[in-house]
Structure formats: C-alpha cells, structure tokens
Amino acid sequence: MRFFLRRAIFYVFTAWAAITINFFLPRFMKGDPISAYLAKNQGKVSPEAIESLRILFGLNTDRSLWQQYLDYWGLLLRGDLGRSLSKGLAPVTDIIAEALPWTIGIVGIATVISFIVGTSIGTYIGWRRGSKAEFVVPVATFLSTVPYFWLGLIMIAVFSTTLRWFPASHAYDKIYIPEFSWDFIGNVIYHGTLPALTIVITSLGGWILGMRNMMITVLDEDYITVAQAKGLSPRRVAVNYAARNAVLPQLSSFALSLGFIVGGTLIMEMIFSYPGVGLRLFEATLAKDYPLMQGIFLVITLSVLVANIIADIAYAALDPRTRQEEAL
C-alpha cells in the first residue's frame, strides 16, 4: 500500500503540474488566438463579436489570470477543452475524438507488432549469442537510425509510385463512408500498411538491441546456472527464467511507447496525409489555433501519465523487489 500510495501522490502532482503548465504556456506566448483570427479576418468581425470571442476563450481582460485559471479548471472538470478557431469554432473535444481512433489504430498496432517481434528476436539472439543470428542487430540498428521522413518517402517511391502496391496517402478511398463493414475496414488496412510498416521498421532495432543486451546480462546470473544444473530444458530456461526477467525493462519502455501513441507520429501523418492527432497538431500550429494545441498537448500528457501508471503496476506485479524497495 505504501508503494502504491507514493506513486499515486507523485502522479497526482505531475498531472496538476502538467495541466497548470498547459494553461500558462500559451498565455506567455506572443499574441493570442483571437489576435491571430482577427489578422486573417480584418474588417469582417464586429467589436461585439470580438468581445464575445474573448469571453468564449477565457481571454477577457475583465478577469484576472488567477480567475482565468480557475475557470480553466472548471471547464476541464466538465470535459470542455474549448473551441477551435481553425475548425469553425468546433469543440476541441470533438476534433480530438475524431482524430484519436486513426492515430491509436495505426500507431498502436504498429507499436505492439514492433514490440512483440523485436522482443522475440532479441530473446533468441541473446540466448544464441555469438551465432550467425547476430547480423540482425547491426542491420536493425542501422534502420532505426534512418530519418523517419526519408524512409517514409522511400516507401512511397518504391511501393506506391513504382510498384503501385499500396496508396501513398489518406486513411481510405474517398468513395467510402466510414462505417463498420468489411469493405471499409479492408480499405483502411490497405491504406495503413505503408505507414505501419514504416513505424515497425524504424522502431524494431531498439526493441531487438534492448532485449538482446538484457538477455546477455541475465544469462550471467546465478539462478540461470542453477536452473541449467537442475537439468531443465533450454527452452524452459530461456523463456521462464531468462526472458521473464530480461523483459522487465522492456515493459517500462513499452508502456511509455503506448503513452506516446496518442501523440501519434507527426512526421508519418504529414508524409502520408493521415488524419490523426499528429496532423491535427501540425495544422493547429500553422493556424496558431491555441485551444486545439492546448487540448492535444493535454491529452498527450495525460496519456503518458496513464501509461506510466500501468507500467509501474505491471513492473511491481512482475518484480516484487520493486514494491519492497520503495516501501522501505
């Protein structure tokens, strides 16, 4: 209980700090969303409408910064993230909710696949250290250092432009209406193959190298020698003793990766014109749409915190030593 109580206090404080920074940061920047909006619509907005917009966005000069901060918390507790200027004053929650499934679908599946494949390959290479399988490590490491945008453009040039196997952009063909049907789902998978493959290729090297190094470290432990001396099968020693302990650091990294799924892969969504959170953040930045930027940053931050909480719980469940050390 002491372990979980300490972690809960830490994450509550972190969430408060993140939300507070998210409130003050745009207000310390030069200008505000209303000024950016008026600069694009000179002479088209009446003074009464300007004042209404400032009240709507909580930027009216009649209220102090502290009162605006309290109003911001009140809106958050009601699930109101404000309205987007660049999307016709549409609610920010609706815009994020529309983009979120696309990002979670493409980046989430690709992250899970790369973690499972990379961890499995790293386990085998670490167990068979010194074998010919070691050549996979430098190849995967090299691919992980390739700039993402460059690899994405190569994938488009080869598989889309030259071979015409996959489409180069968008999440589905324009002839489809989003619905739960096999035709639409198949078209989404068809469009998402290249972006997902790009994510898997660029992230595979880290999982392989991390798991391989941990396996080599674990194999020198005494309990591995004891397990082998008992006459246990190599497969059982590798999976139940070595891999089970070597994968613990990988789980923390995996949880962080899951948290950053919500943020999406900005470059990937730009290259493939994929309608996810990353592309919405890029559009909001260009339009100086602070409410939308603020809402996306908040969702990304909270998702990372939740992922860290899940990682702590999983780590403590798999390794009781963690609970005992922090409880002292």
From TrEMBL:
InterPro entries, per database record: MetI-like (IPR000515), MetI-like_sf (IPR035906)
Species name: Protaetiibacter larvae
Protein topology in the membrane: Multi-pass membrane protein
PROSITE patterns: ABC_TM1
Gene Ontology terms describing biological process: transmembrane transport
Highest taxon in the source lineage: Bacteria
Family designation: Belongs to the binding-protein-dependent transport system permease family.
Protein name in the entry: ABC transporter permease
Chain ranges passing through the membrane: 7-25, 102-127, 148-168, 188-209, 254-275, 295-318
Keywords: Membrane, Transmembrane, Transmembrane helix, Transport
